[in-house]
Design brief:
This protein has helices spanning 2-21, 25-35, 40-64, 70-78, 82-99. It has 105 residues and is mostly helical. It is flat and about 50 Å long.
Amino acid sequence: MTEALIALPFGLAIGLIVGGVGGGAILALPVLVYVLGEGVGPASTASLIVVAVAAAVGAGALAFRGHVCWGLALTFSARPQRGPCSARSPARRLVRRCSSSPLCP
């Protein structure tokens, strides 16, 4: 209960900042780690999920009103995906090679 009382003002402040200017993950992560004592891995995952949901809701509202240029949106969202998709296979080979090496922990 006390964690919820501590988290509430921080959550409200971060929510106002995200709603106003965006970029809430950079603010939520230190609060989750240093104020609430969450681990870095779970805290970064939680902060990214919160920001992704907020962005999806905002984008959905704009798309519902017809304020989205879908051609431009697809151009800016599809092209960056080529890098991770093309690097997937070499990364798997590197992980396999590294995990079989005695030099890797």
